[in-house]
Write a structure and sequence with these properties.
There is one protein chain. The chain has a single domain, classed as Winged helix-like DNA-binding domain superfamily/Winged helix DNA-binding domain (Arc Repressor Mutant, subunit A, Orthogonal Bundle), CATH 1.10.10. It has four helices and three strands. By secondary structure, it is mainly alpha-helical.
């Protein structure tokens, strides 16, 4: 079963917690090696990307709609103050 989009939220925020603005491609390179995927996650989708890239972008979109991240320019993401608070709450749950 492919990873649920929600499983991407914590790794995304973990990479953004420093406050730096990160390019989506660099974000993918940072989080994908840490995640375990099955064959469906690596299945090619339209436009030359596989399912894990689609899920990464969907998770970023959800985080943005909830005010946890912002996109200062196309292809770049950074965490908001609300996102820092959300990340800290998730970190407490993971302990």
């Amino acid at each position: 079963m492919p990873k649920a989009v929600a499983e991407y939220e914590y790794p995304i925020l973990e990479q953004l917690i420093s406050g730096k603005t990160i390019k989506t491609e660099d974000l993918a390179k940072a989080i994908f090696p840490e995640m375990i995927f099955d064959n469906l996650d690596n299945e090619d989708m339209r436009y030359g990307h596989d399912r894990k890239y689609k899920n990464l972008n969907s998770a970023k979109s959800i985080l943005k709609k909830n005010g946890y991240v912002e996109t200062p320019r196309h292809g770049y993401t950074r965490i908001t103050q609300k996102g820092i608070s959300y990340f800290n709450a998730l970190s407490e749950i993971k302990k």
